[in-house]
Each structure stands twice: as C-alpha cells, then as structure tokens.
Design goal:
heterodimer, A: 113 residues, mainly beta, 4-stranded antiparallel β-sheet, 11 strands, 50% strand, B: 108 residues, 5-stranded antiparallel β-sheet, globular
Chain lengths: 113, 108
C-alpha cells in the first residue's frame, strides 16, 4: 500500500482557476515537502514543513500556498492557474527535516489549458 | 545555489552490461542521495552516500566530497533498471537540489 497518498493523480484545469492538491503520509514522519517537475527541467524544491510549520519556501509566487491541517497532511493550493504551472507535483516526507532519506508520493500531474 | 550536472544524459545498455553514472556538483555537500525515477514517474530513494563507497544490491556509489563528485555504478544491468537516475547533493538545506538525471535504457 502506498504510504504517501496524493490526490488526484491527474488534474486538468483552465487558466485562471484554482485547484488544491492533496497529500497525506502514513509513515509517521515529521517533515513534509512539495516538489515540482516540469518538462525538461529538474525536480524543483518548493516548500518544506516540519511539525506543521513552514520551514522553507523556494517558490517565488504567492499563488502557491501550502496548507497543513494535520501533521500528516500537506495540501497545496494553487490560485490563478497559468499554463506554465503545468507540471507533476510531488509530495514527499522524511523523518525530520534535512534528512537523507526522502520518500515521495506518486505525484499529481496538472495540466492547465 | 547548488548546481548539479549529471552525465551522460542518456545511456543504452544491453542486459548484463555494467554502467557508470556521474554526478558533479558546485557547492559543498554533507549529504548526497541517489534516486531512481521509473518510466511511469515514481521516485524511489536508492541510497545515501555523502562520502566514500557504499553498496546496495547491484548498485555501488562512490562519492569524493572534496572533488564534489559522485558516481553510481550499476552492475549486471537488467531491463527493470530502465529509468532515470537522479543525484541530489545537499548541505543542510531544507530542500534537495536535483540534477536532470541520466536516462538509462536496458534492452534484452
């Protein structure tokens, strides 16, 4: 069974709309992250959370807002969607922040038309 | 920030052949992790090797910290090894910086 659940697996949105990407982890980890992978680009770190607190934000745009309602949840709200936001968004977790072993979810593939 | 260069960009192997993947990085790294991304996109941590040599199964990683480089050796490749191998050096940053990876294709 997958230990990091991301929903939905695929998402199609229109430009200007808002979507929420869901992530839940059942590994008992204290740190959670969001990464983005666009075509022809490396996997890119976006946010890190530890014990539900934001630790680092490497996303320039405020249109991306992580939300942590529980310790094992880290959702990603994206507003005013643009075609350039099309990418696969990966949620990840580790026991603590800055740990070597990072576990990834299966990703949400977002297409913005 | 950290820059990561991986080579070669792609590699084609016949089953049973060995492969050597290279990772060079620009800044000091106290951690270095190798990941495998399947053709379907899923990501799995293979091993963590901040320095020296480390083995797991058919994989051997050698990291020379002072020279800011790491290699991943795959021995006796199998078709199931096909995918992209990603290197991620880190120096206590919150998030990892990844290279573009080496795409490995193993044919029977």
């Amino acid at each position: 069974d997958p230990k990091i659940i991301q929903k939905p697996k695929y998402l199609v949105a229109v430009t200007g709309s808002e979507k929420i990407l869901i992530c839940e982890q059942y590994l008992g980890h204290n740190a959670m992250y969001w990464y983005r992978q666009s075509a022809k680009k490396p996997l890119e770190f976006m946010f890190s959370y530890s014990y539900q607190k934001l630790m680092d934000n490497q996303t320039a745009s405020s249109r991306f807002q992580p939300q942590s309602s529980k310790k094992n949840h880290l959702d990603l709200q994206i507003t005013a969607l643009k075609p350039d936001d099309s990418a696969t968004y990966f949620c990840a977790s580790s026991q603590e922040t800055r740990q070597n072993t990072l576990y990834f979810g299966a990703g949400t593939r977002l297409s913005v038309l | 920030g950290q820059q990561v260069q991986q080579s070669p960009a792609s590699l084609v192997l016949q089953e049973g052949e060995n492969a050597e993947l290279q990772c060079n990085f620009s800044s000091t790294a106290t951690q270095l992790q190798w990941f495998y991304q399947s053709p379907g996109g899923s990501l799995v941590s293979l091993l963590s090797n901040p320095s020296g040599t480390k083995h797991t199964g058919r994989l051997t990683s050698t990291t020379v910290t002072k020279e800011r480089r790491s290699s991943l050796h795959i021995s006796s490749s199998q078709t199931t090894d096909s995918g992209t191998y990603l290197c991620a050096p880190n120096n206590y940053a919150q998030g990892l910086t990844f290279g573009l990876g080496t795409r490995v294709s193993v044919f029977p």
